[in-house]
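Throughout our pipeline, every protein is held as a single compact record rather than as scattered files. Such a record has a labelled line for the sequence and another for the backbone structure tokens. This encoding replaces a full spatial description with a residue-level series of whole-number codes. For reference, a complete record is included directly beneath this paragraph.
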Amino acid sequence: MTPQKVIDNNFIYHAPKEGQQEKYQALRSKAKEFAELINKVCPDSREKSVAFTQLETSIFWANASIARDE
């Protein structure tokens, strides 16, 4: 993909297509399950906060891959 096509694709709204909502929900569900485990076993700390942030970031990018590339 050319740089211009990447820019055009990455900076527009991607309306959900058929079947994508289920994929987003599956990702959120597993991420929530993992977040609950982190919350249970990790002491409150900066590192725990970073783990949550990184988990949110990973879900964001996973969702973006579905929206942008399917």
The chain has a mean pLDDT of 97. Residues 21-69 form one domain. Residues 9 and 36 are 34 Å apart (CA to CA). The chain has one domain: 21-69.
